[in-house]
Design brief:
Blueprint: H1 16-19, E1 27-29, H2 37-47, E2 55-57, H3 65-77, E3 85-87, H4 95-107, E4 113-115, H5 123-133, E5 141-143, H6 151-160, E6 167-169
Parallel strand pairs: 1-2, 2-3, 3-4, 4-5, 5-6
């Protein structure tokens, strides 16, 4: 019998079978739980094998670049991932997180909506995302307002929008 992973305090009250996908749960609502970078490592281990989640709402938490990298790496490595919506609003995401998200967007064929607004992403992160968007045809909405993106970052994102179905939102 496999042992059940120990959940950090921020994930207490969550069912492991929902986090790892064995219950078939399609929506994970993990907002405002004080999830840290370290907690994301634990969660990433479960998301790496989750083939049922379609919507992951994990905004309003305390993780930043390291946690986002753990999550994005796990989702990118999960070849059965069916995630369509990834909500990372109002965490502590900077350019490193945007780079990790860009790498996920390069390999993920199911994401249609991503929210990274109200974070600390700057021009470098915006340019990494813009590079990923040039070949991403499935994404329909990128919410990226209220970050530290200047005119060059905004320009890069708008120029990368090569298919008319993608909407880059600088405001909600």
């Amino acid at each position: 019998m496999a042992s059940t992973p120990s959940l950090p305090p921020s994930l207490q009250g969550c069912r492991v079978e929902d986090l790892d996908g064995s219950s078939g749960t399609e929506v994970l609502f993990l907002k405002n739980r004080n999830i840290s970078d370290e907690d994301c490592k634990v969660l990433a281990g479960m998301l790496a094998k989750n083939s049922s989640v379609r919507q992951l709402f994990i905004g309003y938490n305390s993780f930043g670049d390291a946690g986002t990298t753990s999550l994005c790496d796990a989702l990118a490595a999960n070849t059965s991932c069916r995630l369509e919506l990834l909500g990372l609003r109002h965490c502590r995401l900077g350019d490193g997180a945007a780079g990790a998200l860009a790498e996920l967007l390069k390999v993920n064929a199911t994401l249609t909506e991503v929210g990274v607004d109200e974070n600390e992403i700057g021009d470098q992160g915006a340019e990494a995302l813009a590079n990923a968007l040039t070949n991403q045809t499935r994404l329909r909405h990128l919410y990226i307002g209220e970050n530290r993106i200047g005119e060059s970052g905004k320009h890069a994102l708008l120029e990368a929008n090569t298919h008319s179905s993608l909407q880059v939102h600088f405001q909600r």
